[in-house]
Amino acid sequence: MQEHSRRERAGRDVRSHKTVCTKTLGTKTLGTKTLGTMPHSIIPMTEVLVVADCWQDEPEAEAVIQRAIAAAAETVDAAVGDAELAVMLTDDSGIRTLNSNWRGIDKPTNVLSFPALQPTAARRPEDAPRMLGDIAIAYQTMRKEADDEGKPFDHHLSHLAVHGFLHLIGYDHERDDHAEAMEALEREILAQLGIPDPYADRQRVD
């Protein structure tokens, strides 16, 4: 999924799926409060949408994701305060369809990211927030991973949210050195949330 046109079409596919079956947990407005020592102006607007009923068993999922994205935005060297993203909480069937359509892999996975094509023109203060892209997380796969690895559900969800966010802003793990850099950043971000090293067992997120 290196071509921007493919990424844009994938993002539209995700957003059209939301339109049909979205349930919203209630997106929070961050306002001018601070997280740690940094102003919220560096934190992108994050919309969390539920498109699979299985997520109703996890009422804290949105708060977990909002904290994870905020911690990631505080840490990375990227200007994302003028942007927004969407996190779709789906099931294995939904993410399998996305994985097949946009990666040619006909099986479920834990998380997928669809970066949006970024504008090239200079932005004006009155411009609407730019779209970073979409993240999709599958309940059954991530629940099984958390259970199999003996991790708290919210810890694993935080990790997948951070992992997906880093993909949206250009990080990848296609090469070993890129993977090491991305994993080190994930460890740093998650440590700020009190979450242990997710790669202690060396099983890398897709």
Topology readout:
Blueprint: H1 4-21, E1 23-24, E2 34-35, E3 38-39, E4 45-50, H2 61-75, E5 83-90, H3 92-103, E6 111-115, E7 130-138, H4 139-148, H5 153-168, H6 176-192
Parallel strand pairs: 4-5, 5-7
Antiparallel strand pairs: 1-4, 2-3, 6-7
Helix pairs in contact: 2-5, 2-6, 4-5, 5-6
General description of the model:
- Helix 2 packs across helix 6, helix 4 crosses helix 5 and helix 5 crosses helix 6.
- The chain is globular and about 45 Å long.
- The protein starts with a helix and ends in a 14-residue tail after the last helix.
- It is built from six helices and seven strands; from the N terminus they run H-E-E-E-E-H-E-H-E-E-H-H-H.
- The strands form two sheets. It has a five-stranded mixed sheet, with helices on both faces. A two-stranded antiparallel ribbon has the order 2-3.
- The chain has 206 residues and is an alpha/beta fold.
